[in-house]
Amino acid sequence: MTTSRHLAAAALGVSLLAVPAAAQPLLTEAMRADMERLVGAATTSSRAAEILRSLTDSVGARLAGSPGDRAAVAWGLATLRALGFSNVRAEKVMVPVWRRISEEAEMTAPYRHPLAATALGGSVSTPSGGIAAEVIEADSLAAVDALGARASGKIVFIYKKTERQQDGRGYGETVPIRGAGAIHAAKLGAVAVLIRSVGTDDNRLPHTGAMSYDDAVPKIPAAALSTPDADLLHRVLADGRPVMVTLKLRTETGPDAESANVVGEIPGREKPGEIVLVGGHLDSWDLGTGAIDDGAGCAISIEAARLIGALPRRPRRTVRVVLFANEENGLRGGRAYVADHAAELAKHAAAIEADAGGDRAYGFSWNAGPAAEPFFKEAAAFLAGIGAGDFRKGGAGGADISPLLASGVPLLGLRNDSSRYFDYHHTANDTFDKVDPAQLNQATAAMAAMLYALAETAEPLPRIPEADRAGRRPE
Amino acid sequence: MTTSRHLAAAALGVSLLAVPAAAQPLLTEAMRADMERLVGAATTSSRAAEILRSLTDSVGARLAGSPGDRAAVAWGLATLRALGFSNVRAEKVMVPVWRRISEEAEMTAPYRHPLAATALGGSVSTPSGGIAAEVIEADSLAAVDALGARASGKIVFIYKKTERQQDGRGYGETVPIRGAGAIHAAKLGAVAVLIRSVGTDDNRLPHTGAMSYDDAVPKIPAAALSTPDADLLHRVLADGRPVMVTLKLRTETGPDAESANVVGEIPGREKPGEIVLVGGHLDSWDLGTGAIDDGAGCAISIEAARLIGALPRRPRRTVRVVLFANEENGLRGGRAYVADHAAELAKHAAAIEADAGGDRAYGFSWNAGPAAEPFFKEAAAFLAGIGAGDFRKGGAGGADISPLLASGVPLLGLRNDSSRYFDYHHTANDTFDKVDPAQLNQATAAMAAMLYALAETAEPLPRIPEADRAGRRPE
Asked: Which of B57, B111, B227 is the closest to A236 by Cβ?
């Protein structure tokens, strides 16, 4: 299979001695030709922005279990059918239901200021008259713990800035505060927790996101302040005078509701039973229209697969698009997929997730057997031509596909430039206008080429070694 | 007075023949020394950011006639006194009272979308159940007029983008739509008007601002959509299907309330009766905390004057700081100043306004007798050293001082880089964190030097010729 490449390499005087001669799934000339064609098509005739616009304009916000979520499932089915996918279906998933009804926050001393605040996803309501209490500040979960008895009866305010990084690691460093702040504060007898939004912007639009409770301690209301409001509170607290805040949240938790993973396929030409999965999550938070999180990932996945289906010769394996349910506040879609497809997981050759926005791709994360490295080196060298050659080994690809880790399925994650991502993430500002179609197309090109290579290699990639399959939910 | 400069110029072989030898108010060596000192002080020990922080953190929003407005007057008096100003006083001004109570907008067809909207300042309420009507779009006031009978019973949506420009002229091109849209639409029997926010950002934070009614046509509710929401509506309308919007505004107009122009002085050493006025407006819109509009202008004015007062030798004329009332929705402060000081206007040597934000100054606008040109050329050459040498002849300096035009008082306007200004202007995002202290200090340096030059020149500037005193309100 690599004969023509060996010849070409020999003609160029390039030694391939470092590459094992055995059945490594490397990129053949024919594969490269199709990958180039896909890059060209994604750059010149992509429908990714059109797909994204359709989802965000016609469905909008789609928090799990909401009317928008139901509309999104219908949209997914109709869209995949209209684009010519095979075996289009909704795979039922029961999802948790949480709803934001109203929210209000005000600093009342030393002076009065309305505060732009939003309940974290899952937060309980305050008493209907609200909570009025003095504020005490900490800059980490450990610092909350260290407040001890001083936090009792107070609103704990956790103030930590999120750093802007291409790989989004600033989010990973701050998000534990969002997830566990209420638990740490409740242990000390605090009456509520406020956090500085986990975001890199300076807009008065707070960032919501999932948070957890611990049944062993009281459930206290939890909200995020927009970064300018958090900065104001931080400045005023630094002056040393007592600071009082009033917080009124109304939220609602209902019984689980029916949603679905939406699935469509481009059947493989030789090994239709072998699956290369690609997807993002169809649900979104309720404040924006879920354009960057994760409409973009859905659009990239759908369009990359569609372009592959439009090739004169489809790849060997089946490309399966999965638009997952309920990533944001439950991961029920990803878990249901593994349960529903348990018998088929051994035939999953790989899975790729797109859940880092719609900006340009700069590479992929990958996790597979170590012998897969030459394949990824070749893929990286190919994608370097469009600026997407930065490959990093490790991780579980993305939240939705992370439950596949236990089965050893090779997992990849599209790495979009996340420099702007956390400006908009989980806010009302996550709207279609934030996506640059040229960058979205480049990311689609990278995805299409990678997906094709995985679906076409003669041999599937070596699976993740048993030792590396410890379950973890990635960021 | 110019002897030492002539000598220095001669030593450098520079001809000064082009400069009239008579009593032009040029910059002497002694003046330049003090101006340099002021630039240095503003750069290294400015209190401008501290003043601005105090106003925005402790008072916050301060729409004319609101509790915040009263707190701002008290703040202004206390601040000027604490900083050592003389003759600190509140000059009573009766201001209009308009209040935003609640606002809600939603696209209901072809699909449902909440719309981020805000009432324009002065808008009437909708009926309590709201207005539900089909939307019809136009891109200018002339295009609204051309809708004719088609606008009857509809919500007219005026969609025009505001261009980003250093000099803010994009605002001037779009703002007439905000001011007069309701009048044009009402003439055709429209039930409400929506505009794309007059702003250059892409945040879901709509821009409010003043609008007018015409007693000859019905008063219809008027609101601005945030730019992403306006863009959504525009895209959906372009699809050609009927678009329905529901709009619910509750606002309130009350009887005029008492406010004040806040005044403080640095008395002149030789001609204390001659006044060089410097100021901005103390009121702000209600959505943000009025940091860039116009807390920054107040801080620049106060600090520039304070630095002059701290010089070992004060300038000849009195520097008078005026923090004007009610610029945003009435201009009552600027008008009251002229009425209250009618007898003294002949002794106003000049007036400078700072009302273009807190970003770096790139120059001044000036309006005076043509013989003032050499003075401004020298001032521009001096200020070019700090990037503020771009002087433009014309205009009325700023809205608050524009009523002085009729008296011929030489009028100047600080030109701040407005590239970012209309991202935040009149939105909830107009907060302290948007101001860069280094840029604010540079603008303060430019203001202090200019103000000093005007207060110290041997002869005051020639006044604006009668022919150029036609009343106009600048942008």
From this structure: B57
Termini Cα distance of chain B: 39
What is the pTM for the complete model shown? 0.92
Q: Is A163 a catalytic residue?
A: no
d(CA A240, CA A153): 19
* Dist. CA A385–CA A379, nearest whole Å: 10
Q: Is there a contact between A281 and A322 (Cβ–Cβ < 8 Å)?
A: no
Question: Side chain identity at B301, as an amino acid letter?
Answer: S
Residue type, B28: T
**Interface test with chain A among B57, B197, B226, B424, by most A beta carbons within 10 Å:** B57
B397 vs B91: CA distance, rounded Å: 22
Contact by Cβ (8 Å): A456, A308: no
In one-letter notation, the amino acid at residue A86 is S
Query: Which residue in this structure is represented by tokens 């003294």?
Result: B344
Taken as a whole, chain B contains a residue count of: 475
* Cβ proximity of A395 and A367 under 8 Å: yes
Under an 8 A CB cutoff, do B57 and A429 touch?
no
Residues whose CB is less than 8 angstroms from the CB of residue A241 and which lie 6 or more positions away in sequence, other chains included: A109, A110
Option in B228, B288, B433 nearest A231 (CB) = B433
- ipTM comes to 0.90
Which residues partner with B392 through β-bridges? Answer: B365
d(CA B430, CA B61): 10
Catalytic residue from among B103, B137, B327, B328: B327
Contacts of A224 (CB under 8 A, 6+ apart): A117, A118, A120, A178, A194, A195, A196, A197, A198, A206, A207, A208, A209
Q: Are B397 and B409 in contact (CB under 8 A)?
A: no
Q: How confident is the model at residue B45 (pLDDT cuts 50, 70, 90)?
A: very high
Which tens digits make up the pLDDT trace of B175-217?
A: 999 999 999 999 999 999 999 999 999 999 999 999 999 999 9
Which is nearest to B282 in space by CA: B77, B423, B46, B48? B77
